Amino acid sequence: MDGEDVFTSRHYREQVSRHGVLRLKPIEDIIAQQSEDAAADAASPGVLKRRLTVRDLLGLGIGMIIGTGIFTLTGIEARNHAGPAVTISYALAGLIALLAALCYCEMASTVPTAGSAYTYAYATLGEIFAWIIGWDLVLEFALGAGVVSRGWSGYLKSLFNLPDALFGETSTVNVGGILIAVLLGLIAMIGAKESARVTNALVIIKVTICIFIIAVGVFFIRAAHYRPFIPDPVSTTENGRTGWETSLVQAVTGVSPSTFGVAGILTAAAVVFFAYSGFEVVANMGEETRNPQRDLVRGVLGTLGICTALYVAVCLVVTGMVKYTEIDEGAPVAEAFKSVGLGWAGALIAIAAICGLTSVILVDIIGMGRIAFAMSRDGLLPMAIARVHPQWGTPYRVILLTTIFVATLAGFVPLRALADMVSIGTLFAFVVVSAAVPILRRTRPDLERPFTVPFSPVLPIVSVLACLYMMMNLSLATWMRFLVWMVIGLVIYAGYGRRHALARRHDAGRDAMVTTA
């Protein structure tokens, strides 16, 4: 289609006719930008470099997913919400993540770009929704890195018996979390390929240890520890929790606030859901993948399938080795092996956990950098921070700011509050991407789609509803923090993003061309 046909086509006139906060970023612009970048010289300082293979994507995805979900949250959610049925929580979260993953695969293969859900929203829902999801993704990745940095510090303390005042959840300033965030931020700035190499090495270590946990731990399972598999509901007033820790669905329906039981399973599933967000960072690497139409789909689905199987198996082993009321919240897997007399195995697992959590922090920082890069390139954030380093080929300024933010969170914000916020951010992103699939199919049926979601629009709609319901199982306090973050984001958009968006600057010229045509 030549330039004149583009500007006179019906879908293009419809897109440019939407001004203000609902303006769309035409798919043609996104695709053209990808083509220009792909044709640019490999040494060009202005573009991201296409260096990643499907193996690198699997490494990044698995490196992101296998971490806090297995090595930390298993204990927290078993003790506080679900008991041995935390296994069901992980399986349920994995199933819902699969629905969203299929939607990501269609969007990522159709529009392989940095920014993933942010870019998809810009092309289908409008600028204000793109800003909201972009701001949400910044929250998701930054807080995710903060969560895991604190978990990393806790395992380091467990392994080397370091002082509580500087490491772990009881510290006033978590020095260990700050140090690891800074170190990995520097690695992320050096380059995506270099980061992938580090991540791939760490992934091999922690997958091997996960298999070790399952193979050895199964011999120490006691059937009595599974009884009751789903503990009876306990009123939140009985276990010392406040009203703000009540889930939104319980508050709306008037059901008596409680933990454990079915409500506890759903709450735990909502909390651990963030651990499945690793496949999302794979979609974020579209501009740095050699064959994005093929490899992004393989990377997303392969990552999710491998990690879900490992999560469920490890949960069964840990809750079978230790009674859920006695599981350690700081280092549950390592302490489970120590409790059965395998101290050497506990130390080995602690080392693997440190490696696993290290890769998660690194990938989180990389993912947030790509989101902010995409927003800056569109003018919604200052374009100066999106500058790509001439040698490293990474948005180094964005990564530097990201690292400072993550280190601050890791040093001062408790792990549990961070984990809940990451979950609500992840689920919200999945809602947007799932909704974008049927919308884009209706508005742009002409686009080439290397991968399509089966049974659309039914499956994407089910994904939207499932994610929304999972969000409602998070606490009122989490919802309040999320809303405050979103209000801050809207203020920034109104004060800067809306006025500096490149799409706004282009509207007048495009409208003139459409009118002339």
Compact description:
70% of the residues lie in helices and 1% in strands. It has 517 residues and is mainly α.
Helix content: 55-70%
| Molecular shape | globular
Number of helices: 22
Strand order of the largest sheet: 1-2
Radius of gyration: 23 Å
Q: Got a strand count?
A: 2
What is the averaged pLDDT score? Answer: 79
Beta-strand content? under 5%
Cα-to-Cα separation, first versus last residue: 15 Å
Low-confidence stretches: 1-17, 41-46
Order of helices and strands: HHHHHHHHHHHEHEHHHHHHHHHH
For the sheet with most strands, the description reads: 2 strands, antiparallel
Tags for this model:
single chain; 517 residues; mainly alpha; disordered N terminus
Task: Kindly describe this structure.
By secondary structure, the protein is mostly helical. It has 22 helices and two strands. The chain has helices at 3-8, 10-16, 27-39, 54-65, 68-71, 73-82, 86-110, 117-124, 127-160, 175-190, 192-217, 248-253, 261-272, 278-284, 292-321, 332-339, 343-377, 396-412, 415-443, 458-472, 476-500, 502-516, and strands at 234-235, 258-259. It has a two-stranded antiparallel ribbon. Helix 19 packs across helix 21 (476-500). Mean pLDDT is 79; it is low at 1-17 and 41-46.
